[in-house]
Amino acid sequence: MLSKALKELKEFASKEGLYEKKILLMFSGGKDSSLALYLLKNAGLDVSAITFIHRWSWKELLPHMLKFTVAMGVKHYLVDITESLLRNTIGKKGPICIQCKKIMLKNAYWFAKVNGFDIIAKGDNANDKVKGALLDQWRGDHRLSNIPRIGIPILRPLINYTAEEVEILADEAKIRVFRMYEYGRRRQWREGCPLQYIDKEQIIREEYFDLAYEANHEISKIARKDKVRMSVLVPSFRIMCHECNDEVLREANSALKELKRRLTTATSRKS
Questions:
Q1: DSSP 10-65
Q2: What is the band of 135 on the pLDDT scale with cuts at 50, 70, 90?
Q3: Banded model confidence at residue 184, pLDDT cuts 50, 70, 90
Q4: What CATH code is carried by the domain that includes residue 160?
Q5: What is the torsional sign of CA 237, 242, 245, 251?
Q6: Is residue 186 predicted with pLDDT exceeding 60?
Q7: Whole-structure pTM value
Q8: Is the predicted pLDDT of residue 270 greater than 80, yes or no?
Q9: In a domain? residue 12
Q10: Do both 151 and 211 map to the same domain?
Q11: Residues in CB range of 216: below 8 A, 6 or more apart
């Protein structure tokens, strides 16, 4: 399946003149973007990776991401979007991911323009929301489009593959990503950053950023130890978990209780 995917990408790249283009891949370090980078690089395309980080990004992921891009032999740029994230999300209603994606895409556009890249690439697959209503506006091949219209073409090498097919391809390519053992928003692995766990209807405040990071960092330790998928929404502190038993949930609730105690103590001292 992997050799077929590479052959199809090479044929598509030749047809669209991609071998004369500089490609900037938005790289999160997850399975989708890692597979996209693998395919683009092994198809012989001129591809670099860009990763957007902020103050609340998972610190554990970065070394693994850098190790992967070094092994792939591609340039890897890191861009801090902390200030832009604060400026564009505080006071708005969640979920924060919608605003964050806009910020990252806008920053990718300007980075590409300033540094001479011709195309932005993403790891979207056929299960992502971009497939369907959004891309149906594009009459051409969905793999390369001007949707959304940001002023630079967007390449989606995985857009015709389902999440299950991406898993198969990534396994065949021997791609192993670091897991925080997050619950995610879907039943397949869907990790991101802790800010996605701010309660959906909550008006966003900076203190929730810190709370989302601290609470989910504590929870992730338990999830990794017990090999379950678990996250916690804030400020409601509602635990979400796949395959948790009563013992794991008791441990998680105990950890959150201790976190609340520490936060209360810290607030009292500041007062």
A1: HHHHHHHTGGGSEEEEE--SSHHHHHHHHHHHHTT-EEEEEEEE-TTS-TTHHHHH
A2: low
A3: low
A4: 3.40.50.620
A5: negative
A6: no
A7: 0.89
A8: no
A9: yes
A10: no
A11: 182, 194, 197, 231, 232
